[in-house]
Amino acid sequence: MDFSESERVGTIREIVSQFMKEEAYPFEQSLRRRPFAELVPELEVKRARARQTGLWAAHIPQQYGGGGLTLLEFAHMSEELGRSPIGHYLFNVQAPDVGNMEVLMAHGTEEQRQRWLLPLVRGDIRSCFTMTEPEFPGSNPTWMGTTARREGGEWVIRGHKWFASSVEGAAFAICMAITNPEAESPYRRASMIIVPTGTPGFEHVGNISVMGDRGSGYASHGEVSYTGCRVPAANLLGEEGAGFVIAQERLGPGRIHHCMRWIGICERALGIMCRHAVTRELSPGKPLGAKQIVQERIAESRAEIHAARLMVLHAAWKIDNEGTQAAREEISLIKFSVARTLQRVLDRAIQTLGALGMTDETPLAWWWAHERAARIYDGPDEVHMSLVARRILRSYGMRVP
Ligand SMILES: Cc1cc2nc3c(=O)[nH]c(=O)nc-3n(C[C@H](O)[C@H](O)[C@H](O)COP(=O)(O)OP(=O)(O)OC[C@H]3O[C@@H](n4cnc5c(N)ncnc54)[C@H](O)[C@@H]3O)c2cc1C
């Protein structure tokens, strides 16, 4: 693997970094003080500028209106964007839309792409993904209560979902539901179905309060109820019973996006910590950074971020070259280890800033509240650790299920 940054990646980083300085960082205070939904008109002006950089929806091939970057190139861009909570949104590469675009591209019919993918890539609409249910463990996605039954030319969906990110204001949801309960393999029982949110029987029950914040619009997580919700049979995404397989595919590159975003957060947090260590004096002429314990925090953070970045770039390179399935172990490794690095670096930065770290004067407190979830969504730490450990133990001859 070549560790040098290509000229193209260097240019992408420069463009994005300049854009972030001009458009994203100065806007962050508004994000922390006003509801997201209220900021949309101002954000639209910034998004129009982001379109002009040629990096709009950069992960999507140019034929669909995206920037056409490889996963590895996009990983670098994602790190730059991750330095601000609104970076990804400004370039239309925010979760969950990014994953939904990829699923529609890979499995959508021509009609589904025209109706849902193209407006999503243009940024005219938003979407959400409804898989997790309050009554069932999300870490075992083969076991769920939501069903979709075929009645004539329609699917009739019944079920209860929660933590549907960005459902408020979304034009459609991709719903994961059991369609083939009789299938022998539990991995072939569920399907993905496109549900326009205006369909009778689709109800956004409300937003969930997460760490004291109910959020709004794109920046929220909602509860959804499907009560006899009818959509045309043609809204099935991919094959019947292929929902689990598609979900795994969706989450592979998605984890690269998240991990590189977290590394961007870590870099920003380390920068904030270092600036404070240099400028805050404990007594006249004695900066905080002169204390060995603070130096240790800085050095440890630098080493951990560097290691995390190399691991993620390697996983992205492997997906680009050998496919998601071949990179399964690498994907699990980065998912739990980078999420933990993120938590440690944020904690060190907050500690170094003292009371200031708890305020909304920096993005640290916002990230602390909103990114604790990194160790839970897209598979909790334990699930990924178990996958890695079982593979290793198998290679030592142990019989593991
Ligand atoms: C901020 C946020 C955004 C989200 N966005 C979405 C979304 O857009 N769409 C969507 O469908 N879902 C979303 N989710 C849900 C997320 O995918 C689930 O929370 C996740 O899959 C875990 O499922 P669960 O919460 O039901 O936990 P459970 O499966 O009940 O697990 C609870 C805990 O048990 C432990 N555990 C689980 N499995 C094992 C194991 N094998 N070994 C040891 N311990 C284990 C872990 O500590 C885990 O945290 C989101 C969640 C959060 C927090």
Offer a concise description of the structure.
With 401 residues, the chain is α+β, with helices and mostly antiparallel strands. It is built from 13 helices and ten strands.
List the helices and strands and how they pair.
Layout: H1 7-24, H2 28-33, H3 36-51, H4 71-82, H5 87-90, H6 97-107, H7 110-122, E1 127-130, E2 147-151, E3 154-165, E4 172-178, E5 190-196, E6 202-207, E7 221-232, E8 236-237, H8 243-279, E9 281-283, E10 286-287, H9 292-322, H10 328-353, H11 355-358, H12 364-371, H13 381-395
Parallel strand pairs: 1-4
Antiparallel strand pairs: 2-3, 3-7, 4-5, 5-8, 6-7, 9-10
Helix pairs in contact: 1-4, 4-8, 4-9, 6-7, 6-8, 8-9, 8-10, 9-10, 10-12, 10-13
Bound molecules: flavin-adenine dinucleotide.
Report on this model:
By secondary structure, this protein is of the alpha+beta class. The protein has three domains: 88 residues, Acyl-CoA dehydrogenase/oxidase, N-terminal domain (Butyryl-Coa Dehydrogenase, subunit A, domain 1, Orthogonal Bundle), CATH 1.10.540; 113 residues, Butyryl-CoA Dehydrogenase, subunit A, domain 2; 152 residues, Butyryl-CoA Dehydrogenase, subunit A, domain 3 (Up-down Bundle). The chain is built from 13 helices and ten strands. Strands 1-4-5-8 form a four-stranded mixed beta sheet, with helices on one face. A four-stranded antiparallel beta sheet has the order 2-3-7-6, with no helix packed on it. The longest helix is centred in the middle third of the chain and has 37 residues. The chain is globular. The site of flavin-adenine dinucleotide (FAD) has 19 residues, from strand 1, strand 3 and helix 13. The site of flavin-adenine dinucleotide has 19 residues, from strand 1, strand 3 and helix 13.
